[in-house]
Amino acid sequence: MRRAATVVAACALSLVACGDDDGGDTGSGAAGSTLTVFAASSLTDAFGELEQTYEADNPGVDVQFTFDSSSTLAEQVVQGAPVDVLATADENTMQTVVDEGLTAGAPIAFAQNSLILVTPPDDPGGIQDVADLDARDVDFAVCAPDAPCGAATQMLFGIVGVTADPVTEEENVRDVLAKVTQGEVDAGLVYVSDAQAAGDDVVAIEIGQADQALNSDVIAALSEADDPEAARAWVDLITSAEAEQVLTDLGFLRAP
Amino acid sequence: MSTSDRPARRPTAAATGRLPWQLLLPSFLAVALLALPVVGLLVRAPWSTLAQQVRDPEVLQALRLSLLTASTSTVVCLVLGTPLAWLLARSTLPGRRALRTLVTVPLVLPPVVGGVALLTVFGRTGIVGGWVYEASGYRLPFTTAGVVVAQTFVAMPFLVLAVEGALRSADPRFDDVAATFGASRWQTFSRVTLPLALPGILSGAILAWARALGEFGATITFNGSFPGTTRTMPSAVYNALNTDFDAAILLSLILLVVSVAILALLRERWLIGAVS
């Protein structure tokens, strides 16, 4: 949580810095232009960190993020939202945008994410293992089945044999995490990277078969991008070795 | 809405000339802004799948939940809000003005903020909710009762303000007369004040019901979304938006048609009867 706050603060600071830049420094290309990036909420911290690298390499370009459920974002792109780059937490969701012919070039997988069980630090439900979701009468949150994290959760529950109903199906993985950190539920299924981002605000419990329900994070520049070069540059950064380091440090797995 | 037998004033000759364009043009724009989105829903609706969608158990479940919770919230608003409106309109309670401001806060609060605020009080770790959970293991969020609480929170101001307005415009001398005949304050309220304010109470109740039916932000923030317990129609629309825009349109239309039909029915049966 503290980490997220730092990232937000950093973003806010960099926005101010960009605003100041607009007047004087007109280094390369489109000065004062904005790159709009829609990304799965699980990518909040990773993209926030990489924003600084990008804005240092591309002076005058201000990166604006919207983080939400991949399926929400993909639907907004299909409905004509003015977006330059889309990053989704699974391939199926990206495919809906590809099918509409809205991507510039084939989407590139740049990371994978596996699921993990998290509980509040005091573990009010007494949960030691994913099987406790069934065995004990606990309140837990998952992603809605339409969201990539929800699809992976359903698959994983099928594998490990959990049949209990959650108390809520949230639209994106960060909402699941928030319900856990707020202490409103006893447990939630989130990505490893989300658990890591939450730090001491949650206790993470690994799930043995989680590697059988991985989601691939994919990114694509969109054909309607205002500045295709700036969009390309963001895709190049996210698929670079530097980004891979940032992503793996945050708990993501390498792309297959 | 007038309760007196005075006939409504007819426009005089001077007021019936040509309509001024300064009034016509903005009115036309207002109607366009209000009506076009509804037309958009009608035009874009995938009518061919309507019959199938209406029979979808999940849709029916969400619709039933929406009608149940909105109606329950309205009853709660009536039971708690009508006395409050009376206090605001008729009593000499000190601090009434501050109280009225407090009542209107949910009107200006973004519903999502309302949901967060409800969590801080009634959540499992909230000020009241935490204590209740410790003592009994009961939690309000993620339950149908939680949906009712969120809807009541956003709908109550509509009822209170409408009823207060009705009480203010009703002639308080009727109350005085009742009192001179020896009626207690409670008798005066229940036998005289309340019947006189009935049209206002009914329209307030309908406003509150409509607001509760459309409630989304506070509900999803406070209760999350799960089919059958907390996924009301607006939440179902939001859920459908992620995957199927057409389904979202149909769900919206179903909610629209059902609510308009119910309102029209109530108007026919209650409001007209109550006024005349």
Helix and strand arrangement:
The complex is a heterodimer of chains A (256) and B (276).
Chain A (H helix, E strand, L loop, with lengths): L1 H20 L11 E8 L3 H14 L3 E8 L1 H9 L6 E4 L2 H9 L3 E11 L1 E5 L12 H4 L4 E4 L4 H13 L7 E3 L2 H9 L5 E5 H7 L4 E3 L9 E8 L5 H11 L2 H9 L7
Parallel strand pairs in A: 1-2, 1-3, 6-7, 6-8
Antiparallel strand pairs in A: 3-10, 4-10, 5-8, 5-9
Helix pairs in contact in A: 1-2, 3-4
Chain B lengths: L20 H24 L5 H5 L2 H34 L5 H13 L2 H12 L6 H8 L7 H26 L3 H8 L4 H30 L2 H7 L9 H9 L3 H31 L1
**Count of alpha/pi helices of chain B:** 12
Give the overall shape of chain B: globular
Q: How many individual domains of chain B?
A: 1
Chains forming the largest contact: A-B, 23 and 19 residues
Question: Number of helical segments of chain A?
Answer: 10
What do we call the CATH topology of chain B? MetI-like fold
The proportion of residues in beta strands of chain B is under 5%
State mean pLDDT of chain B (0 to 100 scale). Answer: 87
Instruction: Encode the helix/strand succession of chain B as letters.
Output: HHHHHHHHHHHH
The spatial strand order of the largest sheet of chain A comes to: 2-1-3-10-4
User: Separation of termini of chain A?
Assistant: 29 Å
- Indicate the CATH topology of the largest domain in chain A: D-Maltodextrin-Binding Protein, domain 2
CATH homologous superfamily label of chain B: MetI-like
Number of strands of chain A: 10
